[in-house]
Amino acid sequence: MTMAATQPSPDPLLEVTGLETHFPIRSGFLGRTSGVVHAVDGVSFSMRRGETLGLVGESGSGKSTLGKSILRLVTPTAGSIRIDGHDITHLGKAEMKPFRRNVQMVFQDPYSSLNPRIPVGKIVSEALKVHGIASGKEARDRVAGIFRKVGLRASDMHKYANEFSGGQRQRVGIARALVLNPGLIIADEAVSALDVSVQAQVINLFADLQAELGLSYLFIAHDLSIVAQVCDRIAVMYLGQIVEIATRHELFRAPKHPYTKSLMDSIPVPHPSLRKTDRLLLSKDVPSAVNPPSGCRFHTRCPMATPECSRSRPPMKAYGEGHSAACFNV
To answer: Model confidence over 105-118: pLDDT tens digits?
Structure first.
């Protein structure tokens, strides 16, 4: 089963425009700012209801920071975030509370994202109490129903996180995200810490929940084989910027950006006769986000780079319906 089978609504659920999230580097006794980490730098995209958008890129590309910025777990430096047409970019803590019900997160590490000192049922029900939705028996009944929905037993509510396997812990994390009945779930590397067989179970669970509840997912991952199964569209991120975005079929059929091609060529091929002989493999490490390259940020590693690439940032150009890439040399 694949999550991409759900038909998305044409209405935008999430709109991100020119989003920047920078972190100052402070040093010295007085904590003076000595530099800035450009974690997210001018990102724009939108998502429709019922859609699964994949976000891929190397470690350090800014994927997780982008997800946390959308949730306002970190404060954006510039740009705007709109959910259901409402601009939440500069809302205060109290004003954000209603919107937090509609956007939830499943974290990467199911081991560290659950408090080991509290029964998991209480962890999941905490959000119901905070938002004044339910308490007491009503909250317990609601959590029991969510546990059954994610493939756990109601009796598991009384257990602690250390009594579960990795896959079961991630199911608890999914239950915590679902209990407020959100419209959008940001899944931050939600299956990367799991065994392959457990990954398949959790991906199928995401698919079943999307079909039943009409959820939208921003699916952050570095494994292209996973996003190929689960996503309607895929955005490729490099050093804080989106360099290509397309439907999954179009992206895998005809990638445009050299970075996207290099990611495709890095996928292991099990049979020698099927391996490409002209793979685009990258040398050099990813540049620092503290001092990113000028112009196109990929030009220091790109075999197709020209002098223009180092002077100016390439704009996103359309290469067909829903397919855009930022490259001067496509």
So the answer is: 998 887 888 999 99
Contacts of 7 (CB under 8 A, 6+ apart): 50
Read off the tokens for 73.
Answer: 């777990």
Q: What one-character-per-residue DSSP string does 255-278 give?
A: --SHHHHHHHHTS--SSGGGS-SS
How many Cβ atoms from other residues are within 10 Å of residue 46's Cβ? 13
Helical packing angle, 136-149 and 120-130, nearest 10°: 120
- Tokens 């109290």: give the residue: 94
* CB contact at 8 A, 319 and 256: yes
DSSP-based three-state secondary structure for 73: coil
User: Hey, how many other C-beta atoms are within 10 angstroms of the C-beta on 182?
Assistant: 19
Chain-centre distance for alpha carbon 74:
15
Give the tens place of pLDDT for each residue, 193-216.
Answer: 777 777 888 888 888 889 988 999
The reported pTM is 0.88
